[in-house]
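hey so u asked for the seq, here:
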Amino acid sequence: MSKDVLSIAWRYIKRRRFALAIRILEGRSEIYEENFEYYLMLGTACLYAGDIGNATMYYQKARKIKLTDTRLLLGQAAIFLRRGETDRALQYYLEARENNPSDKICRNAISFIKSYGDYETICRWVDSGRITQFYPPLGANPDKIIAFSSVAAGILVLVFAVSLFLKKADVYNGPRLDLSELELSSDEKINSQEKDLSSGTYNYILSDKDITRSYENALNYFQLHRDNKAQIEINRILNSNASVQIKQKANVLMGYLVEPTFDSLTDNPSYTEFYNEKPLYLDCWVAWGGRVSDAVESESGKFTCRLLVGYEKMRNVEGIIDVVFDVNPEFAPDQPVKILGKISNDGGHYYLKGKAVFQSVHDGLE
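ran it, structure tokens below
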């Protein structure tokens, strides 16, 4: 059976025959235009081949398609590291670690930069080839595997297959968990409203049908990996006249929602949607772009700023919201940013609990 060019080229890359892989891939540039895997593969092949200029170019093209792929971040970080730009390399490795906390390459690279990150040491590692241990991984070389016994080869292939599965686990879109115990009983559906409304205030007065529909929507959105949509339905219930039992189940469901990355975030609310109905979007995750002002880092390392949402080109401001990071995310405050954060509330004051920062200025690895 004939194979596509990407599969053939990847086979040569794994065998460390980078020049041949590059020649094959570059001959198909028109076919794979705007293909993320194509540009990523070319950039990685050029990086290992020592062609840093073309590696930079292809990684830039890949980043325009997908922002925070761990393999791409490792490749771009390695380019900065080779050049001795350890601050920028460290930022990329930290972002890669944010996406995959168990990644050994990120951990080892960060440790190396902090302990031995002077320019002379980096030059020696580049010259000796040791620097490649911080490059995007290629997996085992098939040519070397052949030299081992069939049992050893089988184990290596199994380990490699498992590692690929783990890298792709976060994009699996099938059912997540069996939450049948959280489904509403017939009695809960019939008696879904709080009987005594005098004991509290409610943003939403819903009918039995509305409450049941909202709760079932939350369960369905959860299984579809649309956690923001599920959170909105949960908030609608928690701020309504729903019964205590249903609110308790909604709180339990909320505990199953997960933190997204830039790439995995779905149903990103706009600032206007949030502003018009703030309680409905509490605890939702957003990725908002703009510019920052009033950036302050405390003695404890806590970093605060204000995000001027939609002000990237310094024309229109959609709104302003405070942002709080536990540690300084290390970005250029005078450049446009995109911040991934969780909408939070402290005594009626809404703000973003920051998780990660992306700056398009990093696309240019000049």
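Residues 149-172, 361-366 have pLDDT under 50 and may be disordered. Strands lie at 285-297, 303-309, 319-325, 337-346, 349-358.
lmk if thats what u needed
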